[in-house]
Give the backbone structure.
Amino acid sequence: MPPPWVPTGEPPTASIAVRVPLPGTAIINASNDVEYLSPVLEGDRLSVVEEVVSVSPEKTTRLGVGHFIETLETYSRDDGSPVAISRNSLFRYTPAAKS
Amino acid sequence: MKWDEVTVPCDLPETVDEISYERVVMNAGTTWDYIPWHFDPGYARSHGHPTIFVNTMHLGGFIDRMATDWAGPYSRVVRRKVTLQGSIYAGDSMVGRGRVIDKRRETSGAAPRFLVDLEIAIYNQRDELCCPAEVTLDLSTPA
């Protein structure tokens, strides 16, 4: 998750899955698969690269109509060595009208 | 727990956590997950849920706790896959059940790793499956 507040006063940044230009006002997570490649140690400084891997065709679920967005986050040390890889699938949708 | 001592298959102790409103909000807050599902009952109800529910990282933490409580302080989670099939709501019980499904020696990296694969599943108090998970522990560090 991006930080909701940063000390330098910059506005918060939404998750990349929310910034993809798609319809849908609600999000809910579908799955997450993370590998911890090596322990994070005191003194490490980490950075992360977020990528959108795929966007599904429009799907209709019991929650509403939307798209599954698959993202990949790669966490690395300053020397470029990766410490963790997280693959996530999130459903971004317009809630179904109440019956 | 040492890798040599692990029996396959083997059940993990069942673990139960009572999920209060405070627990839902605290875990969402500490993982920076300020989506209204996790703190605003009105928003949750307006989207078809009975109330707020725990976030993905709360489920992941519970699963890791089960795995490492069983395997001990020298174990390390090296992979966790969770699938969100249902929600654990404030007021629910979170019931974790798990078992060892494999142990293997991985030699593809720079040093061999002694791994144990677990299946852990989270149910609610009605025995409805909410979150099946796969976990791999590294037990290479000698105790």
Remarks:
- The beta strands of chain B are 10-11, 15-18, 76-83, 93-106, 113-123, 129-138.
- The first strand of chain B starts at residue 10 and ends at 11.
- Chain B touches chain A through 21 residues (CB under 8 Å).
- Chain B has a mean pLDDT of 95.
